[in-house]
Amino acid sequence: MVFIGAPFTPHGLNDGKAGFPEFHNVYVQPAAFKAYRATGKWPEGTMMIKELQLVDDPKGEFPDGSRIAPSGRGYFPGPVNGLDVAVKDSKRFSATNNWGYFNFNHAAPPYLVEAANKPVEQCAGCHMANAHEDMVYIKFYKPILTPLPTLSMAKK
Ligand code: HEC
């Protein structure tokens, strides 16, 4: 899978009550990544994985939960803590803008082997109401989804 971004909503910045207090590491299949870069559309069968990853030291050193590492003050990745999946399939999920949503646990592994499509109010509803484009919060991934300009070799 190709890594496309990591939105992050820690407890320390959400009054200790973030719904998803982890780094949200988002991945998509290589074929869907290439197709989006080429066409600006997610093909049928696109699967997005969001693996949740806790902060290494939940209390941190500061009231906002951050702490100091040699690189500076910030938040640093700890244990993985859950797996969400979104699948684009216009036949199966036509009622929810062509995407289905699955949760394979919101806790430390082991993750479930199988999961059922979640009811609209638990997942798809918020994506239908708020997502930027085709049910995906695309603005957070555009920096990686946009092909980068390449430097050409200097000619002597
Ligand atoms: C209250 C709104 C809300 C609900 C409910 C919600 N999501 Fe999301 N979801 C978001 C936001 C905002 C993002 C992007 C930013 C982030 O991850 O913080 C996101 C991102 C995702 C992504 C990464 C791809 C994308 O669309 O950006 C997946 C996969 C995902 N959610 C699955 C789920 C699943 C599965 C559920 C139900 C268990 C769920 N979501 C419930 C708001 C929501």
Textual characterization of the structure:
The chain has 156 residues and is α+β, with helices and mostly antiparallel strands. It has a single domain (2-145), classed as 3-Layer(bba) Sandwich (Chalcone isomerase), CATH 3.50.70. It is built from three helices and seven strands, in the order ββαβββββαα. 20% of the residues are buried. Residues 7, 9, 24, 26, 48, 50, 84-86, 101-103, 118, 122-123, 126-127, 131, 136-137, 140 line the site of heme C.
Strands of the widest sheet, in order across it, are 1-2-3-6-7
Indicate how many domains the architecture comprises: 1
Radius of gyration: 18 Å
Q: How many helix segments?
A: 3
Mean pLDDT score: 95
Ligands, deduplicated: heme C
The CATH topology is Chalcone isomerase
Instruction: Give me the secondary-structure category.
Output: alpha+beta
The named CATH superfamily: Cytochrome P460
List SSEs in N-to-C order.
EEHEEEEEHH
- Secondary structure: helix percent: 10-25%
Distance between the termini: 39 Å
Q: What is the total tally of β strands? A: 7
